[in-house]
Amino acid sequence: MASIMDTSALAYFLPVVVFLFIFVAAYAFLQKSKIFGENVTKLNLVAAFCIGLLSIFIGNLSKVIAASIPWLFFVVIVLIMVFGTFIFFGYGEKPETAYREIWEMVGSSPVYIIMLVIVFIAITQVFDATLSPYSTGEDGETTPTSETVKTLTHPRMLSALFLLIIASVVVRFLVDKVK
């Protein structure tokens, strides 16, 4: 049955999609960070192209990207809809300044946190067989990997992490109000 998040067609084009995604991400990172220096666009293109080609042959990376790309695009579409809604209701004088004002109001941290959670979920889907907290060793006893995963995914640990994130966001908003 067809749905909005149906990614069965992505399997045919997976090598191309993985290459393009890694190529664009690597090129953007190299351009923004200026690791190779100023005005070295061609070097950044070649380096990003090589990284993109190498990423095609890493099977697990392709699976992680295939699992996370639809959800990352969904986040981008939701952001576009939020920006469009604010602009439709007249927020900001010009669309160019409105985008900047809305982005400052929303903040980049929640968006990046959501994207990291999506990638983390994709990684757990791909490596579930290897990192399952319910897997046992050869003789039926638990492995250090399974104990680590059990500890990190324990409800108390996750709730403490959630409280730390909420506390940091509250502190950020309080500091912004004081300024």
Summarize this structure as a short list of keywords or feature phrases.
8 helices; 179 residues
Tell me how many strands there are: 0
Shape: globular
Radius of gyration: 21 Å
Q: In terms of structural class, how would the helical and strand content be classed?
A: mainly alpha
Low-confidence regions: none
Percent of residues in beta strands? under 5%
Helix content: over 70%
Please outline the helices and strands.
Elements: H1 14-33, H2 41-56, H3 59-88, H4 95-106, H5 108-126, H6 128-131, H7 144-152, H8 155-178
Structural write-up:
This protein is an all-alpha fold and 179 residues long. The chain has a domain at 128-179. The chain contains eight helices and no strands. Helix 1 runs antiparallel to helix 2 (41-56) and helix 3 runs antiparallel to helix 5 (108-126). The longest helix has 30 residues, at 59-88. The radius of gyration is 21 Å and the shape is globular. The chain starts with 13 loop residues before the first helix and ends with a helix.
